[in-house]
Each structure stands twice: as C-alpha cells, then as structure tokens.
Amino acid sequence: MNKILLLFLLILVYSCSSDDPDPDIIAPTNVVFTLNSLSTDTTQPLMISTTLEINVSADDEIGVAKVEIFIDGVEVAEDVSAPFNLTVDVSSLETGNHTLRVSVSDAAGNTTSVEEIIFVDNTMPSITNVSIENDQIIGGNDNLLTFDVSDDNGIENVVVSINGDNISEITDEVYEVNIETLDLQDGTNEIQITATDLTGNVSNLTLNFIADNSGPEITINSISENQIIDDIINFNPSVDDAFSEVASLEVLLNDERIQFFEDINDFSFEFDPELVATGNNVFTFIAIDALGNLNEIVISTEILRILIRVNLPQDFVPSAVIESWIFASNPDGTPIVAEQISDATTDVVLHAPAEFNMTDEFMVTFYEVDNGNFNRISTLQNFTRVLPGTINIRERNQFPSFTGTDYNVSGFESVGSDVINAEGVDYSGSRQTDEIFHLELKQPQLTNNIYFYSFSNPFNVNSYSYQLVNRPIATDFSIEDANFSTVDVTVENFIINDDGNFNFPINTFIDPALTILGFENQADLENNVFHELFRFNIGANQIGTPILYPLNNSFAFYRHQVSFDNFLTERLGSPLSDYTRPDWSIDPTLTNNNSIILTTSGSSHTVGRAFLRNNASIPGNNYTWTLVYDSQSNNTEVIIPQLPDELSSLAFFNFLESESLEIEQIDLSGYESIQSYDDYIDRVLRDNLDYFEVSDFVETISYRSLGRQFLLSDLIF
User: Fold this and answer.
1) What is the domain range of residue 360?
2) Same-domain status, 55 and 76
3) pLDDT digits (tens, 9 = 90+) for 275-306
C-alpha cells in the first residue's frame, strides 16, 4: 500500500515539472462578417436576393482553421483557408426570414458561432402592361412606351435600352419613355427593359419592334423620264412597303389629281394623252403607308400627237439607196416633221410638234435617192390621225436573186415574125435572136413549171400556141415549135362600146392592148402565183367590132387587163364580152412645182394618182414621183409637198427650186367593193396591199403626156 502511494506521488511530481504548454480551450473571438458587403450591425434583417456573399473575420490565438455557414441549421458552405469569403446560392429558399449562423473554428476545435436573421427575397420584379407589342411597327419620333414595374419589396431602378444603348434610367416610378426611330435603321430593333429591386433582383424584358420611316416603294414600268407619250398607256404601278400596309396612292399630272387609290392593292389605270394638252407634262406618284410615311416619284414626259406610225420589215433600205426619208406635210404642202430611215429602222413614228386634231388632214411622203442620184418619191394624201393610223410596209423585193440561162430556139420563123414569151411571178424570158431565148429564174421559186407561148407578128389569133415545161428544166432543153400545142386554146372576142366620148370618128381604128394571166389553183390565185398567157397590142380594130384573142382554157382562174385610148381596166376572170368606159374625165396643169390644177368630172371614181417623171434624162436629178389622193375631194387641185429642210443637202432639193417637174400620167380610178378613198386607205394603203387582194377589178381614166397608160403603183417600194 505504501509502495503504491509512493509511486503515485513520484508520477505527480514528474508531471508537474514537464515543459509542455497548456491545452487551447479558448474559442475564436471578435467574429465579424458582412453579407453582400453590408454590415450586419443593424436591427433589421438584411435583405438578400438570390446570392449571399459572406466575408468573415475573427481573432484566435492559434488562428482560424475553418468557417462554416448554416442556414436554418443546415450547413450550406465551408471554407478552411483565409481569407474567408464564401458564396451561397439562396435562390432555392423561400422568400422570407431565415436564420443565418456563421461558425468559426480554430485548430483546437474551439468554435464560436454568430447568428443573424436575414430576409431572403427571391421574387423578381414584374414588368407588365408594355404598350409596344413584340414586332410592332412604329415610326417617327413620337412613340410613347409605357409599362408597369412592381416588386414586393420595392424597385431600385429601371433602365430602358435600344439595341444595347441606354436611353433612359427611371427611379421615380413613372414608367414612360419616348422612342425616337428617325435615327434608327429601318427594320427590326430591340428594346430591353431592366428592372432591379431593392435586394438586387433583376428582371429583363426584351422585345423587338420594327422601325419604319420610309414610304412605300413605287415602281413605274409604263413610262420613263423624258418619254414621249403619244398613245393610251395602261399604268400598273407596283407599290410595296417593306413593313407597313400601303394606305394610298395618289397620281398627279401637273400637280392636279388624276387618280386616287385608297386601301386597295390594285393600282392599275388607263391614261389617254388625247385628253391632255401637248407639251411637257409631269407625273407625280405619291404613296403613303399606314404610318403616314410618304414616298413620291416624279417623271417628266412630253405628250405629242402621233400623225402616223410606219412599220418597216427588217433590212428594208437596200445598199444602193444612199438616203431614205419619211416626212409629213400639211395639206398646203408645208413640212410638219421628217425622219430619216436606215436599214436598221423597223418602226417610224411621225409626231406633230404641236396640237393636231383627229380630223385634220396631212400627207405622208416616202423619199429615197440611190447611188446613181435617181430620186424615187411617193406621196399619200388626205390622211388623218385616225386613217390609216399605221402603215405596214411589206418586203421590198419578193425575189432577191435570179439565174439566167440561154436556150436554143428551132422551128420558128425569125424573131421579127414569131413572138416567143415566158413570163410568170417568178420567171421572165424573151427571144433574143432567131436561135436564142434568154430565161431568168427568180428565187425563191413559187411555180412548178414555165409557160412559154408564141404567136405571129403581125398578130394572127390562130397562130397562138404554148408549151408548159416542168421545173427544173433539163440542161439540154430547147424551145422547138414542134413541142408547142393548141390544146384547150379557143378564139374569143370582146367589143369596145362607143361611149360617145372618143375624139375620133366611129370607124377609126383603135389599138387595144390585152394581157391575160392564168392561175393553176385557188392558192395560186390568193398568192398571185401567175403565168402570163398572153400580152400584146392586138392591133387595128374598130369601135363596136369584135376583137379576137386566144384563150387557154386549161387554167382554173384568170386575171386580165384591157387598155385602149385613155381607159384601162384590170379584172378577175377572163376578158369580158364588151367594155364601156366610165364617164370620167381629167385634165391637169402643173403650176410652179407646187400644185397640179385639175379639171375633172365623174362621181364614181375614188382614187386619183399623179405620176411625175422627167421625159429626158437629167443627170443627177432623174426622178419619179407618185401622188395618191382622194379624187372626189381633190377634184380641182393636188398639192405637191415641199421637201423639208432636212433634205436640203440633196441635189434634187435645189433642182425643185430652179427646174420644172413634168407630168407623165394622171389617173382617176374606181374599184369593185371600194366605196370611198377612206375605204381605200383602210383596206389597201394601211397594209401596203395590191388592190386585187381586196377588190375584183379596177378601172381608170388617164391623162398621158406620151405613150400608153399603165397601172400606177401607190408606193415606190
């Protein structure tokens, strides 16, 4: 027992004499923390939003080893190294008061805890009742944006930005901002409203709006700047707005409204320049969209009156022509307007330079001079703007090329005793010598055969014979009398009746001429694909006695021409049994190269023609000039138009000032089924037709200065 007590005392003494320090039993002191940089030294709970940032400091002799954060007794964060800055996400906590405990421990495990009541605010500010809707279209600088912002614990501020640029910061709870769009790009822009509550909760509302400060786009394809307007125009403006609806389109002419469209999509309308004075005219198209944005297009134009339009085929002017013109003249012959044409010209429009009524007359002249200084002129008179309106000129040369071949002739009498001819729409030939016949074949080929015919000279009706040769002609072909036939040939006759107006005794011989054309079928007749069956001045015959001629009856259709004295007629069919001249007369006098004074009679003729041509050659100034006119209204005078100044460089211009023109022939003509000159303009001249395309016959009474009359053409082409 004593030994045990002694051992205990020794141990106790030894322990008391050791150098080890006393254990740390003192917890950290002066624990201080801030919440979201806010001091906790307040009697009110700190307002916390979604994130809690805690900065902790404390004193301890051996140092702080760990900081723990507890909310409502649950550890939510821990930090074991200084500085003790902890972040806690409290967004999942319910809004309201919560107990925050900060525990600070030293290395010995001594712990000091501090509690704080915090108020967690996880309710975001509410942004409502925004006056501008998403993708709403606005424009101008007066666009009030209003909205409401609310929060359970109060709003710190509200910031409004456009495209990332702040335009307003609101702190007074008056949530109104004016949106100025004039400085913005048209199209989509972004508004962002950012509301921050007192606890730092931030709400953002983003919406797009469309800035529209441009008027509707107007596209006008019907007219262009400085365009001449001479005919009805169908306007169909395209009016489009990129963002807004088109509210209206107004069309002004010289600042006066001519059209107004509102709340519709079809802006088409017709404009008739005849209702507007000629000269400069300005169109203004004004389009307004639903926001009041305006756009306008101004187009200056010139309104003129079309006298006539002339349509020409491609490559109409041949290379041999050095100048070609079309000009219009007043009824007194003074020039109105002239246009030069080239081989590239296909459309010529002659405009009156000033007002020109629909019923006012004018004349149109076609003029060309070739490289041999030969002048060819045609004048069509008594036109109005209505008739013809347009002239359509056909191809000048139906047969641009040909080939010529000589064939042997045998079995016939001499060239002066036996006539041999071959003439058709696409071929032409004549006897050159006793043994040679020259034949020219034109291209393109229209006929399938060649018709040769022969008769004696002096003419004997019973001497007529013919040969029809298929094409192509054999290279060894020869024209032999033995191959000519009289099959289907009959001897016919016609009589020239005494009309009481022959200027010679009734028993005097006259010298009628007869031409007969044959057509093999209806298509050939319609296309004027003919063979000449007979052409000759038949010889001395008396008025009232039968005049004999040969007729080949093997053809399906015929056209013939008879002329005697001052009368000529061309008709569908074989020759009539008799002919009586119409009771017409014409006697001309040329005055000063500017008019032809006429003495005429007769009421059934409709078309007059004057043909001027120099009798003797005039080097550099040879000419032909045809004038076509209304023979009833121009029954006392035909005006010869002056050449316009644009032609003053031509030799013929100066010739007319010093020399006299010569009349070769003047006609009065009447037609079957053509009742007036206006009818002739409409049915013949307008489309440059031959008379026989619309009428079965023509008959003319002519004045001739020399030679036998012939059927005059209307145009030089």
Assistant:
1) 305-392
2) yes
3) 999 999 999 999 999 999 999 999 999 999 99
